[in-house]
Amino acid sequence: KVYLAFVYTSSTAGAARWTLDDITLTNSTTAPAPSFFTDVNSLAFGYQAVGTTGTRTLNVTGANLTGGVTVTSSNAAFTLSKDGTTFASTVALTQAEANGVVKPVTVRFAPTVASTNYSATLTLTSAGATSQTVAVTGNTYDVAKTLEVVNWNMEWFGSPDATLGPADKNQQYTNAFTVLNALKADVYALEEVVDTVRLRNLVTQLSTANGITYAYKISEFGSYADNKADPDYITAQKLAFIYRTDMVANPSFRGLLRCAQADACAAFTPWASGRFPYSMRADVTLDGVTKKVNFVVIHAKANATATSANDYNRRKVGADLLKAELEANYASDNTLIVGDYNDVLDGTIATGVTPAISSYSAFTQDPNYLQVTLPLAQAGGRSTAGFPTVIDNVIANRNMAQYYIAGTAAIRTDVTTGIANYANTTSDHYPIFSRYSFTGVALATKGARTASLGLYPNPVTNSVRFDVPETGKDLSLSVYTTTGSLVLRGTGTVEQLNQQLSQRVAGLAAGLYVVRVVGAQQTYTDRFQKQ
């Protein structure tokens, strides 16, 4: 017997009736192709002390399988088990264990080296089915000595309008607490906060649950809302910070480029008609070392198909103005620009734009800024549930970049595990996580970021090579024109990337090109002249 069900999920605010017509079922003599899927595409262990172990669960479900499913780990620090007792680098699930059922696979992280980032790829294969991969990360950097920063778009958090964001606001609140409590960050930079009372209650609950004191501050402005007395303020999407008071002291808050709607200043329209960047400058103490950090959270103009080119121009003008403001008045600060950029860093989501470069090109083309989240996009990540792009980003200026712990940026989809229908009950965005240390770790240093790749010969005619002190198999190579257009992207070993580079360079037009190589520990950037 075959049963066919149409399941309609809605709420009291949704339509009461759907009508389906002209439904046809056609028999096929071809058997459906084998397939399988996992419940997550990444697993983040976070900090794990050397000599201890941690576990996470990966759920595998198969359909129409003709054989078993094999799961293999690329790193011996991450081992696998189907019974939670016997662990190995490879685990084999029988056809019966995986076909049509949810089969849990336990992933164990057992680090052996202190102050190190660990990563692995779990590869899943089955006869006749498309293979899949799951990225796994962990580290041995002591969280008590590092700064953990999260930026998250909470999607109309607590809006009184049931049609904006999740319809069940109480469930959204409960799920938001689950997410924030699982992340356990030191600083949260939030977008789309609507209900200020709900956020206050959330911070109180977060403090109680963790036995530490969190404070918060919400922007006093929003789109078409000049201040808290403005009638549009209550329902506006606002920016906010939540921070640990034992690590973050003497905070001062300011809306950068801010003006009233009537003033019609240059930044008003570009920044979503008054949703200006929000700054928290504070003294941050890590492992006995205190430094001033300028956290800037942004929620840029969204992209709409009908107005894509105009939206792009507004974002670009806004980004240009922000960069000028930061360099004119905060040049000596350790600055992090975090939030919902509403655009990618490696190109643009906008249409009708030539050249198709990021609306944040003022930052992405300046070697004095580190694109912390760029590797996430290059690895095929997605920061929203609905689109395969990374539009929630982090950029650090040169001063702050030296404190970034390379490889720690992550899209934390793992914290959504256990939240039913996350994208419709919580947020359509995933939290973005990154870590920083003032002392004693392998950092993405100023020197490392601007160090020569050793490109030779340069100028270039038909071939070129580079040298970097990396031996991994998953280095990422990107080559751009000076206007930001991507002309080559590849992954592999140094030798494989050199072959790809030489094959492509012969066909390039004369001009100046930027080469960026992202390794396990550092990012390298250099330029060459094509003759």
Map the helices and strands.
Blueprint: E1 35-38, E2 42-47, E3 54-63, E4 69-73, E5 78-81, E6 90-93, H1 95-98, E7 102-109, E8 117-125, E9 132-139, E10 147-157, H2 169-183, E11 187-193, H3 196-210, E12 214-218, E13 238-244, E14 248-255, E15 278-286, E16 289-299, H4 308-329, E17 334-340, H5 361-364, E18 369-371, H6 374-378, E19 392-397, H7 398-401, E20 410-411, H8 422-425, E21 432-436, H9 446-450, E22 475-481, E23 486-492, H10 494-505, E24 511-518, E25 523-530
Parallel strand pairs: 2-9, 10-11, 16-17
Antiparallel strand pairs: 1-3, 3-7, 4-6, 4-8, 5-7, 8-9, 10-21, 11-13, 12-13, 14-15, 15-16, 17-19, 18-19, 20-21, 22-23, 22-24, 24-25
Which descriptors would you attach to this protein?
6-stranded mixed beta sheet, Immunoglobulin-like, globular, Deoxyribonuclease I, Chain A, 531 residues, 3 domains, alpha+beta
What does this structure look like?
The protein contains ten helices and 25 strands. It is of the alpha+beta class and 531 residues long. It folds into three domains: 35-139, Immunoglobulin-like, CATH 2.60.40; 143-446, 4-Layer Sandwich (Deoxyribonuclease I, Chain A); 451-530, Immunoglobulin-like (Sandwich). Strands 12-13-11-10-21-20 form a six-stranded mixed sheet, covered by helices on one side. A hairpin with a 4-residue loop joins strand 22 (475-481) and strand 23.
